[in-house]
């Protein structure tokens, strides 16, 4: 599904206040003050990097999969953080979409035209990632270099679209962006079942009938920006209006989206004729698994077989953006995209009489799920659901290193659409827990009498940490070093070496060796002062705020532990051990203890950091902030050793 791959990730956070003032201009009747910086009300500059001075969209839907979009916008960039508004990216499908009347104009603060661009000035590129071999999705790209602030960018275009599932959405404003005047108009032929859904905003359209079309007009005026909060997920505050029609047509395949069941049947129709392996391969798969006693064990074997024998490659041509490759093709060629690999896994399980279901989902860390009451396409990924007698197992078939039954936070805790022959249903994917994402470490730290040190570190990782370190092993040593130092706040060593050991039963081992000419923080007289660890177990702090408005999101819950054994230099003893600490907040805890073995002249510390939920309610933000500050202070306590008299 090419539409199941992100082309441009939009990040928004804002609060909308639609005033009673109504501003409306025709496409060619825009007052000059909307081009000048002086025409921006002071209230719209606060916490804003850019201001939408004027935006007008007119969408005419003439039939299933048929629409014409006319767009004109004027945006003033206030500072360098708003420079993304000087970049124009226009995605399109080369088979079904056609742009015309493209024009970009740049104005100075006084509204004087400084530069004009046309379609011929745009770069026309293939909209694919490194894993997509070929596709129909393309984009037009233009970047205007901003020399002075404020600068105003005017964009005009028309696009004719001849294949789609839903008509998109009215995304009202971006993060730290205010709106002076916006209008969005939809003209739709009666009988198509047009519908809309408000998210994070209460606004109603003006409805009318015009020349045989149903007409809907939304207006936004003088909507202020909101300052970005750290750890925010934009969709939780993003005001937008999503559109859908009951009767759609995608690449010549008509469908019905009046219900989730209807859309599920459409997807099922694209899968059913490509989901069976040929009889010879079925016999081979059965022979491969005939000594395995349980269905779940067979499914695990076949999932690992898929991981070892296939790779993710995307070919998105025509309906191939939605219809998977035939399972026999994947079996022979050993590659496919998310839906092709999920379909292949479905066929493998089918060969040994294990029932499974395709499921489409919106993937991404902390993404949202499908809305029960508003059927429309929000999906970008396909996975597999396998219902066993005592539990339900979810499989992400694109992840070649993921443990069986643990799809992880990339698709967790959100509504996915289960695809069945008689019409699917929305089901919630499981939520991950801290014990699934473990970072456990053992450190041997040898101090010397001159303040230097050597550290041997062993890290044992599961879940998301395991996935991360498997990926890092493919990077250059310098990149690995940079990422590890950033993640763990490691002091810069004179010697650094990293190696990856076993990956047994879902536990990946990484070994790190560090050498320091100076490891102690302070040397004074006969005393040496140290932070008694090679790295920070928790390297997270958040700013103090007067009031938190939105929930705070980490990527996943976690458990992190470290046991550190410190060899003191010969002739030195402990003068001061850091105090033991036990810190708690509603969604986590941190504990650290220190003991001194005088016989071995060793200090041993045991530390544990748990984050039990990765979503922290806004009301608990201040508690979390104080807790994380306390953890940082606890990690900064000093071990003091002195030379024996």
Give the arrangement of secondary structure elements.
Elements: E1 50-63, E2 66-77, E3 87-93, E4 97-107, E5 113-118, E6 123-126, E7 132-135, E8 137-143, E9 151-161, E10 169-171, E11 177-188, E12 194-199, E13 206-210, E14 213-223, E15 240-245, E16 247-250, E17 253-256, H1 260-271, H2 279-289, H3 295-309, E18 311-312, E19 314-316, H4 327-333, E20 335-336, H5 338-351, E21 357-361, E22 381-387, E23 392-395, E24 415-419, E25 425-428, E26 438-447, E27 453-461, H6 463-472, H7 477-488, E28 495-504, E29 507-516, E30 522-524, E31 527-530, E32 552-553, E33 558-567, E34 572-576, E35 581-585, E36 588-597, E37 602-611, E38 615-616, H8 621-635, E39 639-643
Parallel strand pairs: 1-11, 7-19, 18-20, 26-33
Antiparallel strand pairs: 1-2, 2-9, 3-8, 4-5, 4-9, 6-8, 10-15, 11-14, 12-15, 13-14, 16-17, 21-22, 21-24, 22-23, 24-25, 26-27, 27-29, 28-29, 30-31, 31-39, 32-38, 33-37, 34-39, 35-36, 36-37
Helix pairs in contact: 3-5, 4-5
TL;DR of this structure?
15% of the residues lie in helices and 39% in strands. It is mostly beta strands and 645 residues long.
Give an account of the 3D structure.
The chain is built from 8 helices and 39 strands. With 645 residues, it is mostly beta strands. The strands form 10 sheets. Strands 5-4-9-2-1-11-14-13 form an 8-stranded mixed β-sheet, with no helix packed on it. An 8-stranded mixed β-sheet has the order 28-29-27-26-33-37-36-35. It starts with 49 loop residues before the first strand and ends with a strand. 38% of the residues are buried.
């Amino acid at each position: 599904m090419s539409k199941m791959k992100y082309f441009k990730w939009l990040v928004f956070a804002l609060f909308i206040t639609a005033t009673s003032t109504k501003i409306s201009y025709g496409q060619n009747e825009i007052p000059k003050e909307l081009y000048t910086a002086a025409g921006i009300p002071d209230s719209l500059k606060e916490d804003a990097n850019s201001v939408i001075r004027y935006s007008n969209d007119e969408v005419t839907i003439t039939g299933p999969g048929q629409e014409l979009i006319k767009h004109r916008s004027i945006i003033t960039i206030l500072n360098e953080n708003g420079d993304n508004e000087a970049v124009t990216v226009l995605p399109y499908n080369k088979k079904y979409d056609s742009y015309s009347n493209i024009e970009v104009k740049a104005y100075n603060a006084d509204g004087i035209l400084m530069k004009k661009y046309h379609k011929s000035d745009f770069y026309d590129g293939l909209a694919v990632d490194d894993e997509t071999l070929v596709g129909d999705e393309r984009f037009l790209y233009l970047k205007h270099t901003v020399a002075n602030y404020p600068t105003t960018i005017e964009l005009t275009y028309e696009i004719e679209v001849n294949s789609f599932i839903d008509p998109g959405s009215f995304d009202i404003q971006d993060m730290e962006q205010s709106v002076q005047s916006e209008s969005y108009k939809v003209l739709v032929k009666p009988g198509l079942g047009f519908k809309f859904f408000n998210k994070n905003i209460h606004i109603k359209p003006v409805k009318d009938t015009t020349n045989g079309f149903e007409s809907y007009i939304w207006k936004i005026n003088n909507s202020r920006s909101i300052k970005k909060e750290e750890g925010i997920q934009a969709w939780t505050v993003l005001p937008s209006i999503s559109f859908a029609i009951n009767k759609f047509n995608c690449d010549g395949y008509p469908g019905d989206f009046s219900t989730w069941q209807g859309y599920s049947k459409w997807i099922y129709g694209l899968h059913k004729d490509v989901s069976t392996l040929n009889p010879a391969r079925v016999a081979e798969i059965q022979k491969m698994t005939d000594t395995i006693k349980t269905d779940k064990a067979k499914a695990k074997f076949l999932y690992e077989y898929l991981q070892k024998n296939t790779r993710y490659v995307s070919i998105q041509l025509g309906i191939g953006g939605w219809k998977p490759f035939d399972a026999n093709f994947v079996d022979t060629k050993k590659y496919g995209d998310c839906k092709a690999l999920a379909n292949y896994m479905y066929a493998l399980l089918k060969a040994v009489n294990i029932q499974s279901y395709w499921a489409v989902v919106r993937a991404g860390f902390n993404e949202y799920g499908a809305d029960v009451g508003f059927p429309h396409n929000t999906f970008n990924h396909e996975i597999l659901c396998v219902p066993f007698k005592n539990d339900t197992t979810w499989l992400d078939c694109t992840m070649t290193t993921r443990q069986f039954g643990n799809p992880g936070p990339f698709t967790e805790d959100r509504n996915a659409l289960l695809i069945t022959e008689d019409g699917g249903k929305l089901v919630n994917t499981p939520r991950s827990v801290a014990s699934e994402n473990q970072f456990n470490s053992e450190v041997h730290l040898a101090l010397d009498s001159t303040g230097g040190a050597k550290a041997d570190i062993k890290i044992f990782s599961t879940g998301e940490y395991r996935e991360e370190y498997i990926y890092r092993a493919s990077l250059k040593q310098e990149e690995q070093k940079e990422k590890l130092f950033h993640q763990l706040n490691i002091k810069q060593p004179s010697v650094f070496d990293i190696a990856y050991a076993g990956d047994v039963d879902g536990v990946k081992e990484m070994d790190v060796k560090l050498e320091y000419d100076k490891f102690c923080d302070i040397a004074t007289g006969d005393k040496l002062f140290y932070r008694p660890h090679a790295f920070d177990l928790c390297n997270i702090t958040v700013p103090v705020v007067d009031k938190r408005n939105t929930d705070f999101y980490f990527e996943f819950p976690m458990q992190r532990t470290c046991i550190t054994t410190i060899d003191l230099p010969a002739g030195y003893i402990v003068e001061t051990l850091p105090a033991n600490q036990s810190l708690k907040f509603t969604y986590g805890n941190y504990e650290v203890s220190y003991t001194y073995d005088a016989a071995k002249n060793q200090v041993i510390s045991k530390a544990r950091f748990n984050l039990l939920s990765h979503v922290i309610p806004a009301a608990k933000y201040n508690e979390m902030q104080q807790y994380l500050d306390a953890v940082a202070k606890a990690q900064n306590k000093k071990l003091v050793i002195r030379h024996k008299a």
